[in-house]
Structure formats: C-alpha cells, structure tokens
Amino acid sequence: RKEVEQDPGPFNVPEGATVAFNCTYSNSASQSFFWYRQDCRKEPKLLMSVYSSGNEDGRFTAQLNRASQYISLLIRDSKLSDSATYLCVVNEDAGGGNKLTFGTGTQLKVEL
Amino acid sequence: SQTIHQWPATLVQPVGSPLSLECTVEGTSNPNLYWYRQAAGRGLQLLFYSVGIGQISSEVPQNLSASRPQDRQFILSSKKLLLSDSGFYLCAWTPGSGELFFGEGSRLTVL
C-alpha cells in the first residue's frame, strides 16, 4: 500500500462548481498535513496546512480525519484559475527531521 | 529572507554519463533539505532528505546518491545515468514546520 494515496483524476468541473478531493495516508504516526498546488511544469506551492479542527481559507476548506487516516480539500465556486494538480503532503517526524511524503496528485480542470 | 536555488535548470545527458545537480539555500541555518523527482505525469517521489551536514536518508534504492558537504548545500549525483532517470528534479527545504519551499526545478532528459 502506498504511503499517501490520491485519486489522480482528472476532475472536470464547470466553473462555479464545488469539488472535493480526498487523500489517505498509511502511517498513523503522521504529524502534520498540507495541500499543495502544482501548475503544469512548475514547482509545487503551498496551498494550505490542514489542522485537526479543520480550517478554511476563502473558497478552500481542509479537513483531517485521524481515525480514518484521510485528509480532504473542498473548493467552492471553482474558477478557471483553479485548474491545476492538487497534492497532499504528509509529514512524519523522522529522527529529528521531517520526512515529507507527497501523494501522486489529483488533477482538476475547471471549464466554462 | 530565505532563498533556494538549484541548477542547472535543464539538461540533456546520454545514457551512462554522470550527473550532478546542485541546490543551495541562503538566509537560514540547519534547514532540512530534500530531493524529489517527478516523472512525466506522475507525483513527487522523495529521493533523499537530510537533517544536517553529512546526514543523508535515502528513500528509494536507485543509482542516485546525495551529499551535503555544507549546511546550505545539497547535491544529487549519479555515476551512470539510466533512461529511467529522466524527470523533473526538485530541491526543497523546510524550516521545521513541514512547509516546503521548492527550488525552480531541474528538468533532466536522458537519451
């Protein structure tokens, strides 16, 4: 089983739609979680951290379910500019450092 | 402010040739450093990470190696490249929070 798994998509949605992505992780000792966004042929950029209580940043909401070992990202009122690949990242404390493992990414295409 | 820079940005190498990618972080001390690879249309695969000078953890057995000769310098190397080594190589650092800051990436094509 992969350490961090995501549905690769693509998710093709109309502008204005609400879309949700899930990400599961295998290591129950994982400590922190993040969502990154990657545009084509560019480096990933942090979208938001994921807190235990859930957190919201504008149209984006992130949730963590430790019992079921998954995190989610909800995007409301999708814009064309939201088209990108969304990567979840799981952080394990490894010998004093951070071992940061990425999921394979979920591709989102927002269409007119 | 902290910056991260990696080079070269693009390279085309024949099979069997050596490789050296360099990454430098400025403006911070004792960062955790990472090398990731992204094959075309795939996710990021963690290759190596380092918590300090001379300390390297390898995640995937392969013909690549990494070294950290200075606190701010992280080098990815290979003695003999394979076709399967083609991909987008990304260096990154974290101040310890888990948030990663990436370099611009190095696109390697092995022919």
List keywords for this structure.
A: mainly beta; five-stranded antiparallel sheet; B: 111 residues; mainly beta; seven-stranded mixed sheet; four-stranded antiparallel sheet
What this model shows, in words?
The complex is a heterodimer of chains A (112) and B (111). Chain A has strands spanning 4-6, 11-14, 19-25, 32-38, 45-50, 55-57, 60-65, 70-75, 84-94, 97-102, 106-111. With 112 residues, chain A is mainly β. In chain A, strands 2, 4, 5, 9, 10 and 11 form a six-stranded mixed sheet that branches. A five-stranded antiparallel sheet of chain A has the order 1-3-8-7-6, with no helix packed on it. The mean pLDDT of chain A is 91. Chain B is mostly beta strands. In chain B, 0% of the residues lie in helices and 59% in strands. Chain B has strands at 3-7, 10-13, 19-26, 32-38, 44-52, 55-58, 64-70, 73-78, 87-94, 101-102, 106-110. Chain B is globular and about 40 Å long. The mean pLDDT of chain B is 91. The A-B interface holds A 6, 31-32, 34, 36, 41-46, 49, 87, 89, 91, 94-105 and B 32, 34, 36, 42-46, 49-51, 57, 88, 90, 92, 94, 96-100, 102-105.
Present the secondary structure layout.
The complex is a heterodimer of chains A (112) and B (111).
Chain A (H helix, E strand, L loop, with lengths): L3 E3 L4 E4 L4 E7 L6 E7 L6 E6 L4 E3 L2 E6 L4 E6 L8 E11 L2 E6 L3 E6 L1
Chain B lengths: L2 E5 L2 E4 L5 E8 L5 E7 L5 E9 L2 E4 L5 E7 L2 E6 L8 E8 L6 E2 L3 E5 L1
Parallel strand pairs in B: 2-11
Antiparallel strand pairs in B: 1-3, 3-8, 4-5, 4-9, 5-6, 7-8, 9-10, 9-11
